[in-house]
Specification:
Elements (H helix, E strand, L loop, with lengths): L2 E3 L1 H7 L3 E4 L9 H5 L3 E7 L3 H9 L3 E12 L9 E3 L5 H11 L12 H17 L5 E6 L5 E10 L2 E9 L8 H15 L4 E7 L3 H9 L3 E12 L5
Parallel strand pairs: 2-3, 8-9
Antiparallel strand pairs: 1-2, 3-10, 4-9, 4-10, 5-6, 6-7, 7-8
Length: about 230
């Protein structure tokens, strides 16, 4: 088999969702693809041969992704940052559900209402430590949530899950504050690198990360194929 099941996504969206094992790409057929509601593939942006092969099988571009790394040795604790608690979950769910509507989990691949629920559940899981391991909050002078960032530790590296700034607080440096707080969280865990992934089209986020010393490491494409797509 050239397709592996994505269990969490399949369960959440009530679809049979899989991801192409690129090492088995030579075995992938339209018949195998048709057995899934949605098949995803993530490929290096410079791998044109694989891009052509997947395109010939009916895959289309869903999103470009950039991956960055940020060193954290000189990080410092940021004022106004708190650990999210279960009491924050209702407001965080509301904020997250409206912030990430242009991600790869968008229409026509997924219903908007389910996409909103997906990100709401993601941030709730981060608060509870059941997916990402921690959610940090930026609070303004009135104690209102100005933004949030979720983090997890994997393969001896820290990874940013979601970073969001409330619309009412954009342009006030909240994104920088959260990124620096994430760097400090990484340092306190005894790690030296913070891994970041964001959309290629999210120029504002890329500028933020690069401004704070992040290094662009790779770029990739996400390609999707629905079971009713023809070739």
């Amino acid at each position: 088999m050239a397709i592996n099941a994505l269990t969490w996504e399949s369960d959440f969206f009530s679809q049979r969702i899989g991801k192409v094992d690129l090492t088995q790409l030579h075995r992938l057929t339209p018949t195998e693809c048709q057995a899934w509601d949605l098949v995803q593939a993530k490929i290096p942006s410079g791998d044109y041969q694989t891009l052509d092969t997947l395109s010939s099988l009916g895959f289309v571009l869903a999103e470009g992704e950039s991956q960055l790394e940020m060193a954290v040795e000189s990080s410092t604790r940021q004022p106004g940052i708190r650990i999210a608690r279960p009491t924050h979950i209702p407001l965080l769910r509301e904020l997250a559900s409206k912030m990430f509507t242009e991600s790869r989990f968008r229409a026509p691949w997924f219903e908007q209402s389910l996409t909103e629920q997906f990100y709401a559940q993601w941030i709730e899981n981060a608060v509870l430590g059941t997916f990402d391991h921690q959610c940090l909050l930026s609070l303004d002078d009135r104690g209102t949530i100005a933004g949030f960032i979720s983090l997890r530790e994997a393969d001896s590296t820290a990874h940013i899950g979601l970073l969001g700034v409330a619309r009412s607080h954009r342009g006030a440096g909240v994104g920088s504050q959260l990124l620096l707080a994430a760097a400090d969280w990484t340092r306190t865990k005894g790690l030296t690198q913070l891994h970041i992934a964001t959309q290629l089209s999210n120029v504002a986020a890329l500028r933020l990360y690069l401004r704070h010393g992040a290094r662009l490491t790779t770029t990739s494409y996400w390609l999707y194929r629905k079971s009713n797509d023809s070739i």
